[in-house]
Design goal:
twelve-stranded mixed β-sheet, GH3 auxin-responsive promoter family protein, four-stranded mixed β-sheet, GH3, disordered N terminus, GH3_C, GH3_M, 22% strand, GMP Synthetase, Chain A, domain 3, alpha/beta
Length: 504
């Protein structure tokens, strides 16, 4: 066994830890005080009197009372648009060298500032993730193996005073010098913008690498592994990367990919979930006996939780002005919340768009349950993406097919509404009425509101199945192929009908 790897593992044993001794409530108040103190002389901080908030008996309550909730449009229109014009000290001290382009389902239309403090926060979270690997009982030589990080291009768009790109590309272009010898596919290949060209280079170079862990969006990682196996005529990926032991996933639910992913392996590997958004590195799985993620409660992000109920959320999936909003101290386990964040990039009470559930408050562990805008409630069905994923997984097991992607909408059929599902699978089935009926049954079992809606305004369920390649072809034509791109789960009727026409 490698001496160097054992030394690295022992160093991690000294510094790595499971955060059983963490104090997330105290950490969160400290983080908020640091954020307010550092930003008090910015335009935003002066406007909302951060200096005065810091003098209040409860800084959290004062902050919540005086600073409004922002979605991206409000944050950009009121404040961030000045940053693109070169202004500084707007919502965070100084300026920023980067803007993260969000992975929108229809376009890269959002510009998220990425400050030096945010890059430091992401690096710190990455180090914490490495340290937590000691909890997974990996052998010493694992810590000498290379890490394949399949992300967006590191060749960023150069503007007058900043660069633009997806957060995975920005992060990869700022990796520490000491990490570069471990990092694959390497700087040259990572900078390639064209997905097909990048994939071809990875396939060609794959035999030269000794990969111990993978990270990236499941659909694109799976596509990469299949291409390598096919090109080199392998039985599985372990034929070429025998030391592969860890896959770090994130961005979308991994469960729909698990069955087909494991077909590409010779033996089981460890799956570790992470929560890296354009706005920051928010959470990571820190221990092996759960697939839930621990919030980074001491690393430049202040979290708030909005109960995900009709009284708090409008028809566009945004938080209402009079919504009940809780700090971590007051949030409860096993309740569905819309997540708000305030960060070292100058996002303030910012609705990131995800819904989460706290699964272990002592360890600050959560699971992502869906997206606010991917919440289907046109006719009172109140379906979350979490419930949709669960039903699709059961459907796939019942009919023994791999369903990798789906898009759903409430659409008109005559004067009535139906739910129309487009499924992306490994094979086409003919018994669509039976499949639709089974999906309807599963959703009724999982959601009483859906069952009620099916007896009233929601008059039917229809399903069409397409090869999953068509979904990825659509994504490619939308310039979202590879990196952190995601297929939308819920679309409004007009967008859905356009998508359906394309698939047909």
């Amino acid at each position: 066994m490698s001496v160097i790897g054992e030394l690295i593992k022992k160093a991690i044993d000294v510094t790595g830890f499971i955060r059983g001794d963490a104090k997330p409530i105290e950490e969160q108040e400290k983080v908020l005080r640091i954020l307010l103190e550092k930003a008090k002389l910015t335009a935003f901080g002066k406007h909302f009197k951060f200096s005065e908030l810091l003098e209040e008996p409860s800084v959290i309550l004062a902050f919540q009372k005086n600073v409004p909730v922002h979605d991206y449009d409000k944050m950009f229109n009121d404040w961030w648009h000045y940053l693109l014009k070169g202004h500084q000290n707007v919502t965070w001290p100084g300026g920023q060298n980067y803007f993260a382009l969000s992975s929108g389902t229809t376009s890269n239309s959002k510009y998220i500032p990425v400050t030096d403090d945010m890059l430091d926060s992401i690096k710190k979270a990455g180090i914490q993730q490495v340290l937590s690997l000691k909890n997974f009982d990996l052998p010493g030589d694992f810590f000498e193996k290379q890490i394949m990080m399949l992300g967006s291009s590191t060749q960023l768009i150069q503007k007058d005073d900043h660069e633009e790109g997806e957060i995975s590309g920005i992060s990869a272009s700022n990796i520490p010098v000491w990490f570069k010898s471990f990092y694959k596919p390497g700087e040259e290949i990572a900078s390639i913008k064209d997905w097909d060209q990048k994939l071809q280079r990875i396939v060609e170079e794959a035999p030269k690498w000794d990969i111990g862990s993978l990270s990236g969006i499941p659909s694109w990682v799976e596509m990469m592994l299949k291409a390598i196996i096919k090109h080199h005529n392998l039985k599985n990926i372990h034929d070429i990367w025998p030391n592969l032991q860890v896959y770090t996933t994130g961005g979308v639910a991994f469960e729909p990919y698990l069955h087909s992913f494991e077909k590409l392996l010779a033996r089981p590997i460890i799956y570790i979930d992470t929560y890296l958004a354009s706005e920051g590195f928010l959470a990571m799985q820190r221990r092996p006996d759960t697939n839930f993620m621990a919030l980074n409660t001491d690393n430049g992000v202040f979290f708030e939780f909005v109960p995900f109920i009709d009284e708090n959320i409008d028809e566009n999936g945004c938080v209402k002005d009079n919504a009940e909003i809780l700090a971590f101290a007051d949030a409860q386990e096993n309740e569905n919340y819309v997540l708000l964040i305030s960060t070292v990039s100058g996002a303030w009470r910012y609705m990131i768009g995800d819904t989460v559930m706290i699964t272990n408050k002592q360890l600050a562990e959560i699971k992502i349950t869906g997206r606010t805008k991917h919440y289907l409630n046109v006719v009172g069905s109140q379906l979350s993406v979490h419930q949709m994923n669960k039903a699709i997984e059961e459907l796939a097991k019942t009919y023994k097919i791999d369903i990798k992607e789906f898009v759903v909408s409430a659409i008109h059929k005559g004067d009535d509404y139906i739910h129309k599902w487009l499924l992306g699978a490994n094979e086409i089935k003919d018994d669509l009425d039976e499949i639709a009926s089974k999906l309807d049954e599963l959703l009724k079992e999982n959601n009483k509101n859906y069952a009620v809606a099916r007896g009233k305004a929601l008059k039917g369920v229809e399903v069409e199945i397409f090869t999953v390649d068509k979904f990825y072809k659509w994504s490619e034509e939308k310039k979202n192929l590879g990196g952190q791109a995601k297929i939308p789960r819920v679309l409004k009727e007009e967008e859905f009908l356009e998508f359906q026409d394309y698939m047909r």
